């Protein structure tokens, strides 16, 4: 079975240079994303998970060239995104959109919802104002909002309603890929399920692929087909959702899953817990970045960096003890 590759990421890196302190001659770069590779197939939802500060949101912004990469390659539908000029990238943006974490900061508070939803059409050269307004009303209907929201301002909407507006804006130009950067983390728990179900419904209706970024592994299990686990700028485990949740292999993945509150007694848990804080990405530990917190580390873990290797069909792990 030939599955179409929509997004191919190869050895992507994004390093930031911190501001120099007084009399400081040089400073180490912050390795926010430090060489990750993965493939997102057409029609698939890939979850990117990990603790805050592991580099997930930097991946999202770098993929879309909202910030420029340090190195690496990203191919979208066979096109090398990092080789495109600014005008060429602008034309391609209608095929790949983003949903931001905070719905309030992602919109102009001084514009009505109808105007916000017409912006994608105006930016990409659709000049018929009547048609643009009609399309904006159709978008409201698609995301479950009544027509009278068209003339409301953002402050008149709840967080869940405004995130629906963000979703409507993201699907306006019929994109093939949507990067959802923590799209429900700022919402009440009671609203999260509604928004997730809306995203699933739109995926089926519009044939959208998602890169879904989250620290909530409970949401990811429900929403994603495959899961990539990030730690300190690297992917440490990558597999389909069932493998990750039923047979996790990397000790970091196991520790994250142990932290999920659960009323299910049927799922057995391996006893691995995280110790200490995530290291400074400007000064990561030598060898495996996780060894300073790993309860099963060996001497080689402190000296060598483990590669992400396939240990079973479709299941990749970066751990010497699993290779």
Keywords:
alpha/beta; globular; 22% strand; four-stranded antiparallel sheet; 323 residues; eight-stranded mixed sheet
The biggest beta sheet reads: 8 strands, mixed
Q: Looking at the structure, what is the overall shape?
A: globular
Which structural class matches the secondary elements?
alpha/beta
The helicity comes to 25-40%
Proportion of strand residues: 15-25%
Order of helices and strands: EEEHEEHEHHHEHEHEEHHEE
Number of strands: 12
Q: Flag low-confidence runs.
A: none
N- and C-termini, Cα separation:
28 Å
The gyration radius over C-alpha positions equals 21 Å
Mean pLDDT: 91
Strand order of the largest sheet: 6-7-8-3-9-10-12-11
Q: What's a quick, concise take on this entry?
A:
The chain is an alpha/beta fold. It has helices at 56-63, 86-92, 113-123, 129-142, 159-171, 189-206, 217-223, 241-246, 251-258; strands at 5-16, 30-41, 45-49, 71-76, 79-80, 96-99, 177-181, 209-214, 226-231, 234-240, 309-312, 315-317.
Describe this structure in words.
The chain has 323 residues and is of the alpha/beta class. It has a domain at 237-261 and 268-323. The chain is 28% helix and 22% strand. It has nine helices and twelve strands. The strands form two sheets. The chain has an eight-stranded mixed beta sheet, with helices on both faces. Strand 7 (177-181), helix 6 and strand 8 form a beta-alpha-beta unit. Helix 3 (113-123) crosses helix 4 and helix 4 (129-142) packs across helix 5 (159-171). It is globular and about 70 Å long. The two termini are 28 Å apart. The mean pLDDT is 91.
């Amino acid at each position: 079975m030939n599955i179409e590759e929509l997004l191919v990421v190869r050895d992507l890196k994004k390093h930031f240079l911190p501001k120099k302190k007084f009399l400081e001659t040089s400073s180490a770069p912050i390795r926010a994303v430090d060489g990750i590779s993965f493939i997102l197939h057409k029609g698939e939802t890939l979850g990117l998970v990990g603790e805050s500060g592991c580099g997930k949101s930097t991946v999202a912004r770098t993929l879309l060239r909202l910030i420029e990469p340090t190195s690496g390659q990203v191919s979208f539908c066979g096109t090398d995104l990092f080789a495109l000029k600014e005008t060429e990238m602008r034309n391609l943006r209608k095929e790949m959109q983003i949903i931001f974490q905070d719905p309030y900061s992602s919109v102009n508070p001084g514009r009505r919802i109808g105007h916000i939803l017409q912006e994608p059409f105006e930016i990409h050269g659709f000049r018929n104002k009547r048609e643009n307004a009609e399309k904006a009303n159709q978008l409201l209907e698609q995301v479950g909002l009544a027509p009278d929201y068209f003339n409301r301002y953002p402050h008149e909407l709840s967080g869940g309603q405004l995130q629906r507006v963000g979703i409507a804006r993201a699907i306006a130009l019929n994109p093939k890929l949507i990067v959802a950067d923590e799209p429900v983390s700022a919402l009440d728990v009671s609203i999260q399920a509604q928004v997730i179900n809306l995203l699933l419904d739109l995926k089926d209706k519009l044939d959208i692929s998602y890169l879904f970024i989250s620290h909530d592994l409970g949401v990811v299990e429900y929403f994603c087909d495959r899961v990539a686990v990030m730690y300190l700028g690297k992917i440490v485990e990558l597999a389909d959702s069932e493998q990750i949740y039923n047979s996790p292999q990397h000790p970091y993945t196991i520790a994250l899953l142990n932290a999920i509150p659960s009323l299910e007694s049927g799922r057995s848990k391996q006893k691995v817990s995280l110790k200490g804080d995530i290291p400074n990405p400007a000064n990561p530990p030598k060898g495996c970045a996780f060894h300073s917190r790993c309860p099963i580390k060996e001497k080689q873990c402190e000296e060598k960096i483990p590669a992400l290797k396939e240990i079973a069909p479709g299941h990749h792990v970066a751990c010497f003890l699993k290779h």
